[in-house]
Design a protein that fits this description.
There is one protein chain. By secondary structure, the protein is α/β, with parallel strands linked by helices. It folds into two domains: 4-200, 3-Layer(aba) Sandwich (Rossmann fold); 293-432, 3-Layer(aba) Sandwich (Rossmann fold). It contains 16 helices and 13 strands. The chain has helices at 18-25, 38-45, 56-61, 97-107, 126-139, 177-188, 201-231, 236-243, 265-275, 281-291, 293-307, 336-345, 359-366, 389-392, 396-401, 419-424, and strands at residues 9-12, 31-34, 65-68, 79-82, 115-118, 148-151, 170-172, 195-197, 316-320, 349-353, 381-384, 409-412, 428-431. The strands form three sheets. The protein has a six-stranded parallel sheet with strand order 3-2-1-4-5-6, sandwiched between helices. A five-stranded parallel sheet has the order 10-9-11-12-13. The protein is elongated, with a radius of gyration of 24 Å. The protein starts with 8 loop residues before the first strand and ends with a strand.
């Protein structure tokens, strides 16, 4: 059985989840951060992280951390942590290919006594039903006899500099009681907030996937309420603030649900539910609502533009923000792309500006060219889609200088600005 004093960790995947983990462990024990992209390895070796999750100073503090894209360099490691993405395909089915490829790679260097822990979000049972068979087949080793496994779901919140890795309680689990204890102790060595040892790997997997499913459904509810209140000519934020005066009212706000977690994870659970013969009606209803909100925002904006006498066939709409959340460069599963597609359907020219997003990455991922929106490059109506600090600090007067139409529409998706101030500038205000 693995001894803590002999611990040598390999982190597979150095993205938003893997890198912070590698850095924290790398302050205490030998760690090799592995990624299949040599460009990412070179970047980290130079002391930079384009995701901005880890600062150059923090990278320097991880004195026992090294980086490699060479699988052979992991042969002496005995504790493997998998942090690769788990996306969905074009019909919302789980895409486990990154997980299978990572397991195949690990199997080539797996030895007797090694432990493999998965952090990627999956449906309950995926670790033991999909990953473990790959490890056994490719390595020739026997599960729970020659090697062992665990599951400790990631809880990273990209862009959050307060609730960071070590400050979020960590769920752990293992394939045997002894391994569960070892896995828990290893994570407890870096997680100051403490750990929670789940009763099984399946329980840990299920706990993770329902965290984001619950949040998705709560947002879907307030999104649907927002649609209803708009038809009743009631401001949603006014209603939520009034309802929030009760101590047990949950403070969820409407919005576009993108990113690599909330907008994707529920599909992993619904996939497994359908596999065992259950039709998850509530979860899928919430997903439908949230997936259609970008289209709703676009059409609500267009409707107001037409009402204000703006010729939409000749109009230019400016969108501030394309990352999936504020103060973060992550553009994965950004619903702003869906917003832009809807304007394209109507033949409306769109200009997107985002100081946090990488222009090349946006072009490659969505085929969208980032532009400039200011008084020298005005638009006819404006949508504030992401709450970046750079946008929040703009005044009503500055925003008015960004538009040229006599009666522009101002769609404030995040409800960042004072409605009366924007109306005083001549804007027709729409917000979720």
């Amino acid at each position: 059985m693995l001894q803590l004093s002999d611990l040598k960790i390999a982190i597979i995947g150095l993205g938003y989840v893997g890198l912070p983990l590698a850095v924290e462990f790398g302050k205490q024990v030998p760690v090799i951060g592995f990624d299949i992209h040599q460009k990412r390895i070179d970047e980290l070796k130079s002391g930079q992280d384009h995701t901005l999750e880890v600062s150059p100073e923090e990278l320097k503090q991880a004195t026992k951390l090294s980086y490699s894209a060479n699988l052979a360099e992991l042969k002496d490691c005995n504790f493997f942590i998998v942090t690769v993405p788990t996306p969905i395909d074009h019909v919302n089915r789980p895409d486990l290919n990154p997980l299978i490829k990572a397991s195949t790679s690990i199997a080539k260097v797996l030895k007797k006594g090694d432990v493999v822990v998965y952090e990627s979000t999956v449906y309950p049972g995926a670790t033991e039903e999909v990953c473990i068979p790959v490890l056994e087949k490719q390595s020739g080793l026997i599960f729970n006899q020659d090697f062992f496994a665990g599951y400790s779901p990631e809880r990273i919140n990209p862009g959050d500099k307060i609730n960071t890795l070590t400050k979020i309680r960590k769920i752990t689990s293992g394939s045997t009681p002894e391994v569960a204890e070892i896995v828990d102790n290893i994570y407890a060595s870096i997680i100051t907030a403490g750990t929670y040892k789940a009763t099984s790997i399946k329980v840990a997997e299920a706990a993770k996937v329902i965290e984001n499913t619950q949040r998705d459904l709560n947002i879907a509810l307030v999104n649907e309420l927002s649609v209803i209140f708009d038809r009743l000519d009631i401001d949603t934020l006014d209603v939520l603030e009034a309802a929030g005066s009760k101590w047990n009212f949950l403070p969820f706000r409407p919005g576009l649900v993108g990113g690599h977690c909330i907008g994707i994870d529920p599909y992993y659970l619904t996939h497994k539910a359908e596999e065992v013969g259950y039709n998850p009606q509530v979860i899928l209803a919430g997903r439908r609502i949230n997936d259609n909100m970008a289209r709703y925002v676009a059409r609500a904006t267009i409707k107001r533009m037409v009402k204000n006498g703006i010729d939409v066939t000749q109009a230019k709409v400016g969108i501030l923000g394309i990352t999936f959340k504020e103060n973060c460069p992550d553009i994965r599963n950004s619903k702003i792309a869906d917003l832009i597609k809807e304007f394209d359907v109507w033949g409306i020219q769109v200009v997107v500006a985002d100081p946090w997003a990488d222009a090349d990455e946006v072009k490659q991922e969505y085929g969208i060219d980032l532009g400039t929106i200011n008084k020298d490059n005005p638009v006819d109506s404006l949508i504030v889609a992401v709450g970046h600090h750079e946008f929040r600090t703009l005044s009503a007067e500055e925003l008015r200088s960004y538009v040229r139409a006599e009666k522009p529409v101002f769609s404030d998706i995040k409800s960042l600005f004072d409605r009366s101030e924007m109306q005083a500038q001549g804007f027709t205000v729409f917000r979720l």
